[in-house]
Amino acid sequence: MELVKITELTNQLDISSRTLRYYEQIGLIQSERLQFEKYRFYDAYNIERIKQILILRKMQISIKEIIKIYESKDMTALVNSFVARIEAIENEIEALSELKQVIHRFMDAMLENGIKHISALPLLYETMEKQMESIKDEDNSKEISYERLLALTEQVSAPIDLNIVDLPPMRVITSQLKDTLESEVEGFWEYLLTRKILIGTPGSRCLFEYQTENGSHVMMQRVDYDLVNESPYVDYEFVGGLFAVGSVYVDDDLALFHNKMIQSFDDNSNYEVDYRQDGLLRHETLAESVISIDSQREKLNIYVPVKRRLPRAKHDDGIKQIFHIEPSEIEKANPILKEYKIPLTEITPIYHPDYKVLETNEAEFVCWITARRLSTNVSVRLPFRVDIEFKVDKESERFGYGSDEGSIRFYHGNHMYGINMENKADARLSKEAICFDQPLLGNHVMYPYLGKINYNEYNTLSWIVGEKHFAIIINEEVRYCGVNFSYMNADLYLQKPETIVIGSDGQGKKYFRSIKVSQLKTTPKRIIKRGELTMATKQSNNLLPVIHRVITPHYGENYWFNGCAKYVMECLGETDYDYHFFAGLTGDSFAQVYSYDHFRGDGATDYFLSERNDTNFIEEIFAMCGYASTFVTWNQLHNNKEMYLQTLIAYIDKKIPVIFNYWGNNPRDKWGWGVFVGYKDYGKTLLYMTSDIEKPEEIECDDLFANAPMPGQEACNGWIFVGEKRKSIELSEIYRKRILTLSNLLKIKTRGYCFGAEAFNAWAADIEQGKYDHVKPEEFDDWPMHTIYVCNLATNSSCCHEFLERARKLNPDLEFINDIHELYDRMRHMWNEENGKDLEAIGGGFNITLEALQNKKKRSRIVEKLREFARTTDRIVEILEEGIKESN
What region holds the HTH merR-type domain (predicted)? Predict the structure, then answer.
């Protein structure tokens, strides 16, 4: 006689061991215990009966009716049960009608096969197995299968009623052994009894059960913190947290109930199932016995870990601005819980800004670029307040590194808050704006002319991100006050604390006399409502284990595609293929670019992709590394959204990110290359990293595919899937090939754009010939018209050397690389370090103004400097071509 262990049977039939024990307890089945075995075993007869019970339960025949069926000596009870069930579903919707027809089929099968006694009931199961695959519904031609029966059962089941509870942290001991982590339930139970540990009563939230990932059944008992655990069983600190709780009878379908609990959160706006990065639950689902109102039926509470869902990323039109309100009224409505006075000597500089504390007890700060900041080393959660007493020195502003001279800003996580922003070298274009990223949602908001400060004297800033008001107070004047922000309706006390970091932009000196950070008081919101969570579609999520910023602007990593490519290669285990590798391979860090007609992007990569049907460029870059890849254009994505979305999900599940260069209706106002690193709600929401953000942000697929790309961007917008490695290529050979083809790159010229010396000459010619003479100040946009090309030459002359040095080390015979290195370094000095003769010094760099481009005398100096860049680039090409001849 062949016996099957209970653990194997639960996997085969997808039924819990607890349900089997319950069936045995009420006399429906019997198990056997073998000598020296701690598990139950079942013979063929009882296995068949279990299958029969499962089929009857799927047809919603109650346990009481099933007991009557097996107690009956003929088929009367079975027929009566079927008839009663048919009558019960006749008034239901279409799904119930389908279920009724299935039951009719079983009755017909009994009559056709002459079933007249309960002993013939196994034929019911055999009929199910043999006939269900081929039965057709004559009315609608739907195939009736076992899977269809399961779907109908789920469809007609009553909606589940859930509550949200916050389980407290507790010390627990489990049935898992310390040395093997295997669960030993019976021995564990004996240990609890012999140690006289107070075992949790039903509903006390002290005794739980759960299943591990490998299917082991584990018991978990709450114990006192002072218990000395000398037992062989594992104890640990259970962290608790939010759980969704639903009640179910043991004889019901526990797996179905558990799935419906998880599915009920798919589109819920308040809560979501709490998954870890690997896609598993934060903690295994817990089961707890509770007191049942039916003494004949055992009942359980099922606990699924959940968390508060952040508001959807979208523009918030509900914000209301408040006028004529006094600072005292705002402060009273948003009281301080704890205030931190930041010692200026204990501030931590980030990325080496110029920062020093003077003898006057003031701190002097020059950031040069936005990435260089000051950490207060104080972390607060929403709501919070920041108070800064500061002075901005007007005379030291140069507009040489950025367009926000004079700004004072701070950061809370990924969110920026700033005043006196969006300023230009041309004062007519300055906005003196208040700018911020809306708390939680992250979309960028700007209010021009509200952030004006007094230069060369001390100002006070109080920025209150409060529970009742969002307010900016400058020099005791309320410049902005708003209510009805989305974050004000969230459970603020559940938000993660973030460090306050001070920042600015540009070369101008800022002075600080005091900085204070305050945690504001908050009122806990109890949003635990019975029955509010009743949705029913499947949910799945995943997040890559590798999460970090794509690029670091502080290191000159200004071409985002190369950071994305490095990100993918890192996940594939390729450590040699970093940002500088790809920046050299694409030509981004070598080629000056210039467009004859319209803005085409930041560097060579964007320019190559700006021509229609030229996506082969990207695929060739990865081919140089030995990898297959596919660039899917926007049109292809739009025509096959679901197919490519499922492909993306498959990539994330394989722990491989997908590169993108298309944003759709992006509510966060962030643009450029990025990588998808995860998904939620089975792909309804995608998680991405871009630029220098340090944790993933979200975009909904509906927003992603909402709008067509801008004219001319159809070819460069799309997704990039990097596939398998087809061959291994020597690293030295990759670098060598790039160097030997570099002269060709620097001579590219098409109808739409040009590279190298021709780019500098075309740029100079447009300025000299008066391209901007008729441009009005309000029409002048310095970035696409001029400073993008300055950024291009500044980045390349400063950041190509890493690639050149590696190429020289790997190919020592290419001695001419040293000359190339010197010429690019020469261009770096020509840009910004040439004793008053450099491009920045003559007003043609990042500090460009429309007046300088329209004034013939001023622009003539700029034109001559650009032509000097062209001559230097020509010399680079000459050395490359001479070196190539010698190397051959």
Answer: 13-72
